[in-house]
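Appendix C reproduces, verbatim, an entry submitted by the partner laboratory led by Prof. M.T., so that reviewers can inspect both the input and the predicted structure.
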Amino acid sequence: MGWLFLTPHEADVVREATAMLVPGPADAPGETAPGAREADVVRYVDRLLGAFATEPPLIYPSGRADGSFLPLSPAQRVGWRHRVEGLQQTYRAGVPALDRLADGDFTAAPGEVRHRALCDAEATAFRDLLFDHAIEGIYGDPVYRGRPTAVGRTALGLPGPPDGGPRSVRPPDPVRPYAGEGPDPVAVLAQHFLEAARAVASGGFGG
């Protein structure tokens, strides 16, 4: 499967950087929970950055078994394109910066050099964005990584979509893009989720 936006090298850097930020069994001995590598976070990042390479854009899943996405309203299209283009610019600048801070090639550098690069003050903003996207990619709906939503219980132990037999025989729910007044509720919920994830990762909430 090819990439929608990332170059192969950019994808490799994003994969290795997010795996250091949220390590899983392949990156940290004794770790049992899946991390960024196991969750294929780099695919989530690529589909977000390349959201407008397809039609409808890969922004709002329809909730149907085919993994389709909803069309955007004109206002949503303008707003989301602006956000995505900003993220694209950040990644196009952030990946070369990590390469430079890791003495030329982040993916080929030893672990301690990668760690030094990610901890450099110059990389702070990009590192924080990578962490946010790693959390979204791990715990978000698999459809954002181009995979069908699993039936049953999720990795977090929360209820997944109901198992009511083959989805193909059930009519799809009527899902429409948000067109109301005020902030987009999906964006507000996502912001609350990220704030909670940061607090947990930093030992907040009594952890």
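The CA atoms of residues 12 and 42 lie 8 Å apart. Additional entries are available on request from the coordinating office.
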